[in-house]
Specification:
Blueprint (H helix, E strand, L loop, with lengths): L1 E5 L3 H12 L3 E6 L2 H9 L3 E4 L5 H6 L7 E4 L4 H14 L4 E6 L16 E4 H12 L2
Parallel strand pairs: 1-2, 1-4, 2-3, 4-5, 5-6
Length: 132
């Protein structure tokens, strides 16, 4: 699959590495040039730019992508990236990271999100499951 990972921070980089290891074609969009250079030195394919801007998404191959993962450190940015990816660039599957679980209600189809995950929410659910 052709996958774009928007956000090359700790989580985005881990996702990209795992997907590359599974033989997917992955391009990471990262706005911080030093972080982008570091990821490129690791062998990841990088576009340095703001994933909230259509030209950065297009430079990363959004018009041919199968999946976009919006995993920046800001929920508002992940939502903008998601809606642009789904509505304007017609990427078939959009997955988004929820940073603040209070914003979970926003991450739905109206914002172009097909699936969303909150690390904190997932951990809380697992803890609560073990108590039953």
């Amino acid at each position: 699959m052709r996958i774009i990972v928007a956000g090359g921070g700790t989580i985005g980089a881990q996702i990209a590495r795992a997907l590359v290891a599974s033989n997917h074609q992955v391009i990471v969009i990262e706005s911080e040039s030093a972080r982008a250079a570091s990821l490129k030195a690791e062998g990841l394919e990088i576009v340095t730019g703001n994933a909230s801007v259509a030209t950065s998404l297009e430079a990363a191959g959004a018009l041919r992508a199968d999946v976009l993962v919006a995993c920046t450190e800001r929920d508002s940015e992940n939502l903008v990236i998601s809606v642009m990816a789904k509505r304007h660039l017609e990427i078939p599957r959009v997955v988004a990271r929820i940073n603040d679980d209070a914003n979970r209600w926003l991450f739905d189809g109206s914002w172009g999100v097909d699936a969303a995950i909150s690390s904190a929410g997932a951990l809380v659910a697992l803890v609560e499951q073990t108590g039953n």
